[in-house]
Amino acid sequence: MYTDLSEAQLRDHRGVVTDPGDFDDFWAGTLAEARAAGWPVRVEPVSTGLTSIDVFDVTFAGFAGHPVRAWLRMPRGAGAALPTLVQYVGYGGGRGHPLENLLWASAGFAHLQMDTRGQGSGWSRGVTGDPGVAGPEVPGVMTRGIADRHTYYYRRLITDAVRAVDAARTLPMVDPTRVAVFGQSQGGALALAAGALAPGVRAVVALVPFLCDIPRSVVVTDARPFREIRDYLAIHRDAEDQVLTTLAYVDGVNFARRCQRPARYSVALMDDIVPPSGVYAAVNAHAGPTELAVWRYNGHEAGGIDDDEAALRFLRGHLVDD
Amino acid sequence: MYTDLSEAQLRDHRGVVTDPGDFDDFWAGTLAEARAAGWPVRVEPVSTGLTSIDVFDVTFAGFAGHPVRAWLRMPRGAGAALPTLVQYVGYGGGRGHPLENLLWASAGFAHLQMDTRGQGSGWSRGVTGDPGVAGPEVPGVMTRGIADRHTYYYRRLITDAVRAVDAARTLPMVDPTRVAVFGQSQGGALALAAGALAPGVRAVVALVPFLCDIPRSVVVTDARPFREIRDYLAIHRDAEDQVLTTLAYVDGVNFARRCQRPARYSVALMDDIVPPSGVYAAVNAHAGPTELAVWRYNGHEAGGIDDDEAALRFLRGHLVDD
Amino acid sequence: MYTDLSEAQLRDHRGVVTDPGDFDDFWAGTLAEARAAGWPVRVEPVSTGLTSIDVFDVTFAGFAGHPVRAWLRMPRGAGAALPTLVQYVGYGGGRGHPLENLLWASAGFAHLQMDTRGQGSGWSRGVTGDPGVAGPEVPGVMTRGIADRHTYYYRRLITDAVRAVDAARTLPMVDPTRVAVFGQSQGGALALAAGALAPGVRAVVALVPFLCDIPRSVVVTDARPFREIRDYLAIHRDAEDQVLTTLAYVDGVNFARRCQRPARYSVALMDDIVPPSGVYAAVNAHAGPTELAVWRYNGHEAGGIDDDEAALRFLRGHLVDD
Amino acid sequence: MYTDLSEAQLRDHRGVVTDPGDFDDFWAGTLAEARAAGWPVRVEPVSTGLTSIDVFDVTFAGFAGHPVRAWLRMPRGAGAALPTLVQYVGYGGGRGHPLENLLWASAGFAHLQMDTRGQGSGWSRGVTGDPGVAGPEVPGVMTRGIADRHTYYYRRLITDAVRAVDAARTLPMVDPTRVAVFGQSQGGALALAAGALAPGVRAVVALVPFLCDIPRSVVVTDARPFREIRDYLAIHRDAEDQVLTTLAYVDGVNFARRCQRPARYSVALMDDIVPPSGVYAAVNAHAGPTELAVWRYNGHEAGGIDDDEAALRFLRGHLVDD
Amino acid sequence: MYTDLSEAQLRDHRGVVTDPGDFDDFWAGTLAEARAAGWPVRVEPVSTGLTSIDVFDVTFAGFAGHPVRAWLRMPRGAGAALPTLVQYVGYGGGRGHPLENLLWASAGFAHLQMDTRGQGSGWSRGVTGDPGVAGPEVPGVMTRGIADRHTYYYRRLITDAVRAVDAARTLPMVDPTRVAVFGQSQGGALALAAGALAPGVRAVVALVPFLCDIPRSVVVTDARPFREIRDYLAIHRDAEDQVLTTLAYVDGVNFARRCQRPARYSVALMDDIVPPSGVYAAVNAHAGPTELAVWRYNGHEAGGIDDDEAALRFLRGHLVDD
Amino acid sequence: MYTDLSEAQLRDHRGVVTDPGDFDDFWAGTLAEARAAGWPVRVEPVSTGLTSIDVFDVTFAGFAGHPVRAWLRMPRGAGAALPTLVQYVGYGGGRGHPLENLLWASAGFAHLQMDTRGQGSGWSRGVTGDPGVAGPEVPGVMTRGIADRHTYYYRRLITDAVRAVDAARTLPMVDPTRVAVFGQSQGGALALAAGALAPGVRAVVALVPFLCDIPRSVVVTDARPFREIRDYLAIHRDAEDQVLTTLAYVDGVNFARRCQRPARYSVALMDDIVPPSGVYAAVNAHAGPTELAVWRYNGHEAGGIDDDEAALRFLRGHLVDD
User: Fold this and answer.
1) Which residue of A has its CA nearest to F127?
2) What secondary structure does DSSP assign to D98-123, as a single string?
3) Are F277 and F216 spatial neighbours (Cβ–Cβ below 8 Å)?
4) Which helix (H) or strand (E) segment is F180 a member of?
5) Please, where are the H alpha helices in C44-118?
6) Mean pLDDT in consecutive groups of 10 residues from the start of chain A, 322 residues
7) D301-318 pLDDT, tens per residue?
């Protein structure tokens, strides 16, 4: 069943999240620090038995120079630097297995799939740790360090996402003028953030992006991971202001407001994990041109392979045909 | 938690299903009829935008000559007839989308993925109907036509599976001496059946195969799809003998007894959909040599991509290096 | 809790389903074909041990002349042709056991209870198969053949329902001028359809009728069987138009618009299986006079035996006292 | 799935409940008191509109002379005193509606259906209160007054059940030499008790009887109503001895040991409400001859109408043909 | 997620419950009868091993003079009569264990915690029975005797609550001019009732009070214990008027209208057991001054220890500092 | 229902966990490092409004000298150094609120309740962070740093537990010769560890202790938190040996083997969170004298306040009367 406002109401929906006055300064400072702690990307070939795709194990400098892992998949025998897709993954997962997720390289792109720090044990495997933990937390990362925007988990993860673009653009097999970011759910939220913050991004695909209009999303769904925030506030009853302040700095609506790049979104009207109103709030705030795929009968899986197929078309249009 | 006998008990476990005296006659007659109703395979290229894989839409003659669909995925520019994998899919799904499931062709195989008649609406899409329905049924196909082995749904589907091998071996891009069958869950059950019944199969991969030792499986799990049989018998209380008789003709243990080809199985000790005892019963009955991967902490997802990686190695050993 | 609009909003609610221009032609053609394939009703006495009721096993020609079964229960020793009730049953069930459902014959009516093709294994037993399957489907019959209104399951079942009235009126123990139709849930939907399409129906009882205002119902409940349609569209994402077009031809609101006969409805405000808004849409569209029982604290069981008692009174008024 | 021991183990299973030394004295004293407080049965005709069955609203003196209600249904126009069935109902329900439950009178029996004190609000309606409450309790009646066998709810209800037989045998339309008792679940437990305690009972039908071998049943199922006892003991942690002592006086196994009359039982191997081991313990303890129907694929609904059909045959054999 | 109206709507929300014309007469008569049946409070010291708190086992005369138990906890060595808190407990529980709930006496108050008749087996232990049962009921006490306001369970329990205040004020260690009542959920409802009905109450704390605006609450939540009323009406379909009439006499909104004492309430916007609209209806109807704590991210646990801390401050203000 | 072996089997049950050869060295080294990083305890009075108990906010040096918080509650006006209880809390919680948990100080003990690093957001509040995170993890702390025993979360938490005893014994209000440790679930596991590792502990209370015989516990329950380990191994399929090796160093059975102090345990036979077999394995391995309370009808709440009451008696025996 529909899980949020009616489709007509959603079309004009704007979120309730505030836009902090020092948002841009916060992120400029954060990224400057991360870049100051950077070091050169490491790339190692992986033996997979695949005959049409080459896979590389990539390590790059993320937040505070922490090592972050990724897979780079390339069509075998690509002669020149390729148009490149940087992918972020959904909550709980990691970069997975080299043999998974072959679509993007099979379609002719260089494909960098970033691991997610401190997750990677839910629905796909990861290897990257999260050294920055502070304070009490609800199981999961949604409330890790949430008492202050400087210690918050997503400050670190979003920085990783931006630095993944930086890293990709230094690789010889990547055409640094033709890079796009994409992801689903948490991956979509990171793509929005990277689209707003990372230099050199040409296009963004954010499928059912998570972390949008968080103050409303937290009170209109009971499902995890938004539920983690509710659970935290149910125990830390005096922390509401502090927590909502921190969250404003990672809200997808605030990144959308600053994202000049063309973006393709999707939304699912029966999604009970990422309430549709948050996605519409981001779409309606987006600074650049947008496309939106509306899936009326889907939950959080949204368009699935149909979203991917349309994303391929959109990305080819912006990176290859453009 | 563990869902069945202890690992030590499982190792020697043999099932309780009986082996009907006319089992071989039944299947010989069924396949002879199906072949008599056959017609030439149809193959149409599909436009996908992929640069390293070609996809074809295949239609072949299944049970009673009913048209059955499949995808054929090929590494682009394969010069010669290739070693070939015929894949069957799990309960509820269909052949899916051309852009899905690129692993096997990316690894250098021709890959024929058969659609499942009358399913294809659960977790992946299908287009093939099942024209042979008869009698009352529980939602799902487990009890469709179950009152008689001649009208039973799985008689038709297993025949499709055998005929898919027949069809593949007539194609110019397929090396008919190097064909293997594989699948997971229902797909694993069909692979066992095709491994026993289809001429020209060199190896079998049956991951957490469904439909094994059905009389026990039905009373040791409450989960669908085995549950459908229980639900039927809970209403049709006088049909137990009739139903168990029908089911003996499609039980994976009976196919394993007749399968001379080498087979790789997997089993998951926390699987509540396919009870591990059924898998062990099949492995312990298998006529040819077997390998078994035991996943102690997994449910029905079993080894997932790790099962696939090992399957690739096993299949390469039997089809390429052999 | 209330599962739909407030009671005040419901009172004026009209559905969103469209009324196809060729609706009447479609059904006229369908029924003409079915009658052309007809053959005489078969009636066999059943030995039950009951002392006050006689039961007969009836077989009549349904859609495409397919054999459809029913029970006919009669007060023992009825001297003359009786006022007659034709009953249709709810989703998943069948005509059940001869010893069940003795109320209507104990109240002095001839009572023909039609079996439901291809169901009859959920909460009561059936024996009638559904030979017309086509295309992929979700477990259950809601999406069977849904790609085209000609192949759709409910085209066949509604035709059976109309033909059951035709069949009853040919029997010597039935007074063909005093026939009513009734049912609950799916049975209520069939009663509405038969009330609109079958000649000779004097009155209709549709208790919490299913299949009304389907486009809205599908998006306001998660429960089966409406859920089957949502699940189909969640996978067959491009089929929305096709599916909604098919469904308009079986929507109870469109039958209500054409039903001139007096009808008694019931609705339950806590029903999460048949959303109350669909029932109100049908009541408010009904062409003939209507009564509506509103059950404020019930779910889909609605008025239960109280609905039956009131139905008896209503039916006696229209068939006996009238 | 099977919910208890294997079928082979069940066949020889004996329960763990103890047989208190003063069991017979306890019940003899209880019944003597109840009879001393008795008064004549009241019988009022009910207007139902049924043409083949007459229904009467009966009030008789139960425990401590408390008024207990029942329906008496009779085939219309019975010339002589009839063989009679006294029925007790399952947990939570009451005697229901006069128009329900017409099978037994339609089959030629006088049929007295006793209401259950203080229940009658779950799945069928009742009107009889339970004036004897004492002490703290878990919602439901399982722990009402359980601290002492004299205040325990089931002391009162079982007395009602015996007094219902007494009452029936005083009615002119009842042949006092041909009375049987029957029921399902709680009703089966009451039938066993009445079969052991009430003079003049010729046969007993106990379908999936509840309250058998309670000490084991409470620790092998989590389902209500046995769960109520567990919940009570989880809070009243020092009450185990007291509670188990009380329960021994109402345990079906202890009544079975004393029941000389022929009995038909049923058991369901997938029953998670009444564990099968309790039923087997009662059957194996039964003093008189027994029949047992084993339903392998059913839960607590057990044989349903098939159990009823067989019960009719059994009861006709003992009350009519004998 | 939020479970009821938006916070803005709640602020002005008034309930739908009616205020019976004879409400005051009903309660005046009820209490007069109870007082007529009264007898002197009994107080027995309990040996607990505590060094700073003395505990007494109190028995007082409740409804109809029935004995009702309570714990009285006192700071050890209190020289003079103390300001006193009378506490009522939530649904299902009892007065618990002497070693529990030490906060209030540790803060310097005399603390009388009343047991709840016929409950005391759910989440804490009780010992008090409910001798007044009548009529059929749903498991639990919500529908016990609900057919008539004179036999209704809550008439008895509310009378107990008022009589607990009467009893406390007769004790030598209690300062009868400084008594407050408090409780959570059902305990909050009893506190509101005692605040309106009991002479000598100085202040009221009602945390997420249950039983407010019952006609609406019953239709906007599915959770127990409100669910018991719905379940009763779902079976006793003709009893709606009777039941709603009875409930108006115990509705917290009607007590709030009559409560002149200052009150502190709390409400939780994610409460699905006590819908927030009922609490706001009571707050907005309250005759005396009110404070309301709004917990945005909590369910029925509401403010927990934070509610207690604020309650201590409020009670100290009214009983000690005032 | 019973969740594990029968009570008779449990009585002799020994676990399957191995005892690593360098277990003692590992912990000796770990504690030496922690003590080397230590600094003096900080103690600040807290204003609570309580009249009989003083509360202090304590900060001490835990693992690696990380600051760990605790509450110290003291009977007001204690003249001399007191017998002291160090308490550890259950999974997910923290030290809670100063006004909670007043039993132990009310009974005359000094009571130090340690906060749990990186938890404190589930059922009670905490403030202590966990700075040592490494590697991918499942939400929760069970798999944090599990790839190596040196980085594992419980190495840090157990060190905190030992250091809490060290810290307590330096305080002037604590009699360092009369210190005991206690806790429930995770708190019980920490108590066992501290009982084995911390100098100066006189007695141990471990109520339904968690983390005992982990290799078996993980495969006999599906419930969290053991489930986190299963979920990790279900994704990190190659990590079984590594993970089980790490876990052996924190297994309660290995601490019990080394604990010479008298210990009181409790176990609940219906516990599905901490399987009873693990508790019995620890009891049966315990080096010192033991008492065991067996709760037959409880889940993980076990004896609740009854366990506490008995613990008080046991602790008074060992710390006061001894």
Assistant:
1) A136
2) TTS--HHHHTT-EEEEE--TT--BSS
3) yes
4) strand F174-184
5) 103-106
6) 94 95 98 98 97 97 97 91 97 97 98 96 92 87 96 98 98 97 98 98 98 97 97 96 98 98 98 98 98 98 98 97 76
7) 999 999 999 999 999 999
- The pLDDT value given to residue C201: 98
Calpha distance E305→E207 (Å, rounded): 11
Decide if pLDDT at B132 tops 80.
no
A277 flagged as catalytic: no
Rg (CA), chain E: 18
Q: What share of chain A is helix, strand, coil (3-state, %, to 5)?
A: 35, 20, 45
Say whether D220 and F269 touch across the interface (CB within 8 A): no
| For range F159-174, the mean pLDDT | 98
Largest CA distance in chain B: 59
Q: Would you name the residues of E annotated as active-site residues?
A: 185, 271, 300
Q: Mark out chain A residues that contact chain C at CB-CB < 8 A.
A: 1-2, 269-270, 295-299, 301, 303-304, 306
* Annotated catalytic residue B185: yes
Active-site residue, from A4, A300, A307, A318: A300
Q: Which of E99, E305, E313 sits opposite F309 (nearest CB)?
A: E99
- The conformation of residue B170, written as its DSSP 8-state character, comes to T
Question: F259 φ, ψ to 5°?
Answer: -95, 110
Question: Closest Cα partner for A238 from B19, B89, E305?
Answer: E305
F chain contacts of residue E306, beta-carbon cutoff 8 Å: 97
pLDDT in tens, C17-65: 999 999 999 999 999 999 999 999 999 999 999 999 999 999 999 999 9
Q: Which of E117, E140, E2, E136 is nearest to E60 (CA)?
A: E117
Q: For residue B237, which residues of chain D lie inside 8 Å, CB to CB?
A: 295, 297-298, 303-304, 306
Whose CA is closest to A90, among A182, A156, A169? A182
> Which pLDDT score is estimated for D77?
85
Q: How confident is the model at residue B159 (pLDDT cuts 50, 70, 90)?
A: very high
Tell me the two tokens of residue A98. 């080299």
> In Å, how far is F263's CA from the nearest CA of chain A?
31
> Rounded to a whole number, what is the distance in Å from the CA of C153 to chain D's nearest CA?
29
Q: What's at D122, amino acid-wise?
A: G
Q: How far is D38 from chain B (nearest CA, A)?
A: 44
Q: Which amino acid would we find at residue A289?
A: P
Backbone angles phi, psi at E260, to 5 degrees: -85, -15
B49–A316 CB contact, under 8 Å = yes
Alpha helices, DSSP H only, in chain A? 7-11, 23-36, 103-106, 153-169, 186-197, 214-220, 226-235, 240-248, 252-258, 276-285, 305-315
Across the interface, do C107 and D316 touch by the CB < 8 Å criterion?
no
Residues of B in contact with F217 (CB under 8 A): none
F266 CB neighbours in chain D (<8 A) are none
Q: What is the mean pLDDT of chain C?
A: 96
* Residue of B1, B269, B309 to mutate when probing chain F, most F C-beta within 10 A: B1
pLDDT, tens digit, 9 for 90 and up, residues F91-136: 999 999 999 999 999 999 999 999 999 999 888 999 999 987 778 9
pLDDT band at residue B56, thresholds of 50, 70 and 90?
Answer: very high
Q: What is the rounded average pLDDT of the residues B125-131?
A: 93
- Closest C-alpha among C187, C178, C82, C65 to residue C131: C65
Residue F268 to chain D, least CA–CA distance (Å): 10
Chain E residues in contact with D129 (beta carbon < 8 A): 133-136, 145
pLDDT in tens, D21-56: 999 999 999 999 999 999 999 999 999 999 999 999
User: Given a cut of 90, is residue B305 above it in pLDDT?
Assistant: yes
What token pair was written down for E10?
């709640």
